[in-house]
Amino acid sequence: MPKPGPVPAASSSPRDQDRLVAGLVNALQDRISTGDIKIGSWIRQERIAQEYGVSRTPVREALRQLDALGVVEIVANRGARVKLPSIRDITEAFEVRGVLEGHAACLAARNITQAQLDVLRETDGIFREAVRHARSGGEDSRAESRALWYRANDAFHATIVTACGNRQLQLTLETLHHRMPRNLTWSALDGDPRLLEENAEEHVRIADAIDRRDGERARELIMAHTQRAQELILLRFQEP
């Protein structure tokens, strides 16, 4: 993952400082979203500053902004900890995501290009490979299954959102995705071949509807897909 450049010199403009902080916010959000920085873990300012070659000042500001976004929580005299979403957070986020992604799918059915449709179709093979690795068993196969699923899932949903052609919708969904780590969905699927295959089939049906230019059906399917992910995550949260 690209890292922000070194901290600007003291004479740099406030705009340079703002860009540096924004770069740190985006990088940390991405690492939290992918599970590289795990939910519940502490983020140490000194370590982040060293990793990105910056001073602690922009790191502190980046963490403050992440706290305002609800991604981390700042604990007095302790530092910043990646926030575990509450059941209410998950429910509300997935309800909003379903509506917004449903609208994006409806628009994509009108605007999508053949090249973008090809990307949607190509993800099916990657999803199937993820299922195959999950069935193989073993830690290495499970890790490969997870990596393949992330790759396919990211490409599929990003392509639909891009194809919708609505920039404000894209930005809103990007913010929402950053607030709800994607590894939550993987933890709910838990490398279960049956659930992964079900998930792959849902993606195929969505792609079929978009390919047929049936926007309303695409909307219905992606909303159901999002609701299913929400249900699985909540079930996992409620396990003893």
TrEMBL record:
Keyword Endoplasmic reticulum assigned: no
UniProt-listed InterPro entries: GntR_C, TF_FadR/GntR_C, Tscrpt_reg_HTH_GntR, WH-like_DNA-bd_sf, WH_DNA-bd_sf
Organism of this sequence: Thermocatellispora tengchongensis
The name this protein goes by in its record: DNA-binding GntR family transcriptional regulator
GO MF annotation: an example: DNA binding
Domain of life: Bacteria
Ranges for domain HTH gntR-type: 18-85
Keyword terms of this UniProt record: DNA-binding, Transcription, Transcription regulation
Keyword field contains DNA-binding: yes
